[in-house]
Design brief:
Organism: Leeuwenhoekiella blandensis (strain CECT 7118 / CCUG 51940 / KCTC 22103 / MED217)
Shape: globular
CATH class of the largest domain: Alpha Beta
Catalytic activity: [molybdopterin-synthase sulfur-carrier protein]-C-terminal Gly-Gly + ATP + H(+) = [molybdopterin-synthase sulfur-carrier protein]-C-terminal Gly-Gly-AMP + diphosphate
Distance between the termini: 59 Å
Number of strands: 13
Helix content: 25-40%
Number of helices: 14
CATH architecture of the largest domain: 3-Layer(aba) Sandwich
Strand order of the largest sheet: 3-2-1-4-5-6-7-8
Order of helices and strands: HHEHEHEHEHEEHHHEEHEHEEHEHEH
CATH topology of the largest domain: Rossmann fold
Number of domains: 2
EC number: 2.7.7.80
Protein name: Molybdopterin-synthase adenylyltransferase
Function: Catalyzes the adenylation by ATP of the carboxyl group of the C-terminal glycine of sulfur carrier protein MoaD.
Largest sheet: 8 strands, mixed
Amino acid sequence: MNKYQRQTILPQVGINGQQKLAEARVLIVGAGGLGCALLPYLAAAGIGNLGIVDGDQVEESNLHRQILYTPKNIGEHKVEAAKTFLKAQQPELHCTAYTEYLSGENALDLFKEYDIIIDATDRIEVRYLINDAAVLTNKPVVYGSIHRFEGQVSVFNYENGPTYRCLFPKAVEVPSCEEAGVLGTSVGLIGMLQAAEVLKIILETGNVLSGELLIYNTLTATQDRFKFKKNENIQITQESFNAAHKNNYSPKVSFSIDLLVNGILVDVRTKEEQPRIANASVLEIPLQELNRKVQDFESSKDYYFFCQSGARALQAVRLLKEHKHINAKALTEGAAQLQKLITTASV
């Protein structure tokens, strides 16, 4: 117990609290900036069981804010690189790396294995998936999000409290970090606030941010807190979960040169977004125009959608699936990475 002496002397922790931390099981959805910020502190605090789920691989553009990774990790699965870091820090930690994306197919089974879920993602559709799976499995969700210099933190579904859908009934698309930009310090701060909420929940101490949204602006060093109530009219059932998430399950695929030869890539960004990709196998159809052009897609062909971050690509895939077009997938890579890959393949 020498390792934890400085925290066990706190009356809110003590030996009993340290035992609670050792027995806790926490699942982190997303091993990007927020995940990298909170994971080492949860492990160092003595949480005994951590799960990390993310299908992404380390890219060079991640390194300025995803501090668990080094240039040597580029191309590796983020969750595997994160696990290696955490095990070196905390050898007794039981850490499970899931090299897959959270989906309607796996969310419920994964959530059942853990006590607390951490939303460390940057995709709107995944936030609703996390919320609905957490409600069905009765798990609290520690939420964090970043937009440029501003971050948000809250705790949903805590002791039957308000959920993400109570605060955000409808999805509103916002630019991702890739599109809007972000400083690593902003991500680090919000991730640390999420970690603090996790510890309070496990230790049953302090005021958990249930029914409250904390908004912190790192540029002005100001913060606000807003209260929100549970909407009793929102009901999540297995049927609604299946309709919203299982039937729309759209796994991503990675780019290969074969896709240019045998498939069609569809850019759903606006015409103003850069970089533009000039290739005969790339169609440009902004997402807002896709609905009226869906009849132009041929069922005999394979279509691969992309944007900047992947959020709009997944929306496009779901739209085509609603029209019974089964040969539609979203690409893992964003436009900037695709441009490099296509240029290299053409040389």
